[in-house]
Amino acid sequence: MTQSAPAIHTETISSPTGAVISFRMLPVEGGTFMMGGTDEDALTIEKPVHKVSLSNFWMGEFLVTQALWQAMLGDNPSYFPGLDRPVEQVSWNDITNRFLPALNEKTGKNYRLSSEAEWEYAARGGIHHSPYLYAGSTRLRDVAWYRENSHDETKQVGLKQPNALGLFDLSGNVYEWCADHKHDNYEGAPNDGSAWIEMGDEGRSRVLRGGSWSISHPRSCRVSYRSNGDPGDAGTFVGFRLVLSSLQ
């Protein structure tokens, strides 16, 4: 039996100051894809290419903004101010220990970071299997803010062309934290779309995806490119995006 396609979900929350913030979670219909790098710039860390099958999930239409972070926690750690810009200077630990618990308590849902497989599947357009190097195009400037066009700063979310799923800024603007631990290649990686986590090794580096405003070489914004960071690190070029497995 095939899964029915999920519907768009709009979340609306009220901040302690009375401000109302809404954000949309777009449906990503489950399917099977080949994960990893096959283009001429593909690195060893992007191999071996392997088959992954995923269930339906929802992903944030935009990167988490400074407005949403501030509404939930009352502070704004970002270096580049602008409520419609992505929040940055947030560590993996900040997100998982502070922001997500606060959001989930507020909404009664289980928002989380994406697995690396979910991120790449969505960036590639999900069931559309888009053949692009970047999330929505083979011309990076159409879909991404990077060193060549960013003027060395983040930009308001959603200004560039979205990908086939309607998701913005999956390439460029800021890197996105994923749930997975860093691994040197895909040998032994899960094939069900779940996060690849080594139990008992919580201090290990976590995966970063997508490229950022600071990237000078386009290859680092490819949909298969993998980076990583210490879970306690927070940089001006790193943010995150929300994912849901269920609306319940």
Automatic annotation (TrEMBL):
Record domain Sulfatase-modifying factor enzyme-like: where: 25-243
Annotated Pfam families: FGE-sulfatase
Gene3D superfamilies assigned to the protein according to its UniProt record, in alphabetical order: paralog of FGE (formylglycine-generating enzyme)
Name the record gives this protein: Sulphatase-modifying factor protein
Species this chain originates from: Haliscomenobacter hydrossis (strain ATCC 27775 / DSM 1100 / LMG 10767 / O)
